[in-house]
Amino acid sequence: MGPAPPDSTPLLPRPFRVMRVRRELRDVWTLELEASDGAGPVRFRPGQFTMVYVFGIGEVPISICGDPAKPDVLVHTVRAVGTVTQAVCAARKDDILGVRGPYGEGWPVEAALGRDVVIMAGGLGLAPLRSLVRAVVARRGAFGRVVLLIGARTPAGLLFSRELAHWRARFDLEVRATVDAGDPGWNGEVGVITALLPRATFDPATTTAFICGPEVMMRFAAADLVDCGVPPELVFLSLERNMKCAVGVCGHCQFGPAFVCKDGPVFSYQRIETSLRIREV
Ligand SMILES: Cc1cc2nc3c(=O)[nH]c(=O)nc-3n(C[C@H](O)[C@H](O)[C@H](O)COP(=O)(O)OP(=O)(O)OC[C@H]3O[C@@H](n4cnc5c(N)ncnc54)[C@H](O)[C@@H]3O)c2cc1C
Ligand code: FES
Question: Any alpha helices (H) in 139-214, and if so which ranges?
Answer without folding.
Answer: 161-169
